[in-house]
């Protein structure tokens, strides 16, 4: 009896792992479509996030001090934080712009949202930018044929 349960459990785990989609390549653009029964056209889109040139760390690096008497509590530390925040904001703006440019290219390429879309959610994970959206138009019969297999 125990052996039968073990065999069944093992086969279920193996089959579940076999159906898991392969992990995304770090540089891969992800685009998935879903058409609901009522004709609502949804999509998920993501691109790799851009890395900062210095390996993703803000500021000047470990152990360095500014010429103006930096270190803990020094006034130049505030300037450094403001500069890092500004740089981070600029980087976020560039990444967001790249997300929308890449999405527009993908939608043009596939013809999925012909009359625009509504942004449901946008978020960033450690290494990717994600956008969930809903097309303004409902699915046609041709849409159902073209995008059901994706």
- Placed side by side, the strands forming the largest sheet appear as 1-2-4-3
Q: What is the number of E strands?
A: 4
Helix tally?
3
Oligomeric state: single chain
Blueprint of the fold:
Elements: H1 2-18, E1 30-35, E2 41-48, H2 75-110, E3 117-124, E4 128-135, H3 141-147
Antiparallel strand pairs: 1-2, 2-4, 3-4
Outline of this structure?
This protein has 3 helices and 4 strands.
Polypeptide structure, described:
Helices cover 40% and strands 20% of the residues. The chain has three helices and four strands; from the N terminus they run αββαββα. It has helices at residues 2-18, 75-110, 141-147; strands at 30-35, 41-48, 117-124, 128-135. The protein has a four-stranded antiparallel sheet with strand order 1-2-4-3. The longest helix has 36 residues, at 75-110. It is elongated. The two termini are 42 Å apart. Mean pLDDT is 74; it is low at 14-22 and 53-75.
List keywords for this structure.
150 residues, alpha+beta, 4-stranded antiparallel beta sheet, elongated
